[in-house]
Amino acid sequence: MSVRAIVLAAGKGTRMKSSIPKVLHEICGRPMLWYILRELRAAGVDDIVVVTNDELQARIGEFDVPSVVQREQLGTGHAVKTALDATPPRDGSQVVVAYADMPLVPHDVFVRILTTPSGETPAAMTLVTVKMPLPSSFGRIVRRGEDVERIVEARDASPSELAIDEMNAGIYAFDEAALREAVAALKNDNAQEEYYLTDAVAHFVRQGKRVRPVTVSDHLLTLGINDRVELALARREMNARLAAAHMRDGVTIIDPATTYLEPELTIGRDTVIYPNTTISLLSTIGENCAIGPNTRISDSRIGNDVEICESVVVQSEIGDDSKIGPFAHIRGHAKLAGNNRVGNFVEIKNSQLARGAKSAHLAYLGDATIGEDTNIGAGTITCNFDCQRKNQTTIGKNVSIGSNTSIVAPRTIGDGALTGAGSVVTKDVAPGERVAGNPAKPLKPKN
Ligand code: UD1
Ligand code: MG
Q1: I want to staple 75 with a disulfide (CB 3.0 to 4.6 A). Which of 64, 85, 139, 195 is the partner?
Q2: CB-defined site of ligand 1, < 6 Å
Q3: Could you give the 3-state DSSP secondary structure of residue 29?
């Protein structure tokens, strides 16, 4: 049977008090809308349309999903009608309707509503209900005996209805023909003067059609985000789930509450992550690493057996067996081949360090290539910017750069060369040559 989904995201999101559309607010590095699309696809639903407003429509290209604009936000029932009016009817099709402000719904909830239990006839509407602590702004499930009779929105509810603790989660599966007929019949005679999708329940019950409730036990799964307090709650829960998945895969996380993760990260076995660490943007970390505390790794690839402590690594690569930090900043497509030591207060930008190259203290290495086993002394600066353009520094292998050397780029320093402490290098240095001074000049050969 064919299945399609309508994801409602056109609401004004007034309670967020934001100029950004609600469903674009981020949870663990991804917009809220990203999660529900991922989970629908994981449930096997690929034919999805998102109902947007004008602001969201301008950004919907990021999501690679068809969309329909609901120009006026006249309610959830009207939003569904807008989506259905834009697509030709498909007989016998099931339609999932979900609200985009629910990023924590796991895909198996969609599978459950789409699967009619054996022996039962398919329902006109299946809806997810959940018990929740009161008070709550969710719509209440009014039952008669076992059967769901109607949903009453909190704003339209009587005191006795407000005391009901079984809520409408906002996730449904419909028979398409029944849904088309029901949304055409909705009225807006309620407190908000909106066309409520939830009124479809009473509509089907009046017609003697079947409405099937599916109960979810954990109300956090169906958290609907309407303000930034709920956004923080969802972020904490999502982060805890991400951390749990990595821990089950063999990563030690000392304090999951202060380890900030995103979906789609790779972290190898026996890696230990210390507190206050953020790892983002598809970063990969190898096995047996020690990361953190107080570290940020973004859009980077880290090898095996690497230590990174109290440091920032952005858009860079760090090879196996390297030791970074404390207080290093590695960025701008820096590449460390492996077995490198980058220590206290060292900034490396758009530079390549060959295996074994070291810069242990207080340096700036920008637009530089540094050869194998070269040692960069404390206080070394590659003076890469001449106030007009960035210039390249090339340092060979087994070079010894003395403390407080300034290398005025563009400059080449050959293999095995040496600069004395405090050198200002304004000319290229030949392989094996030893220079010192300001400006640096060749030292007399030792007798
Ligand atoms: C809705 C439900 C309520 C349920 C709760 C669960 C209705 C009438 N009420 O209330 O029973 O308990 O969700 O979270 O459905 N939207 C549109 N167009 C509109 C209006 C809303 O696309 O004209 C979208 C919103 O962007 C949002 C979703 O529909 O993603 C739900 O709207 P929202 O205003 O958050 O409804 P709730 O008051 O939370
Ligand atoms: Mg809501």
Answers
A1: 195
A2: 8-11, 51, 70, 73-76, 78-79, 99-101, 138-139, 151, 153, 167-168, 170, 196-198, 224, 226
A3: coil
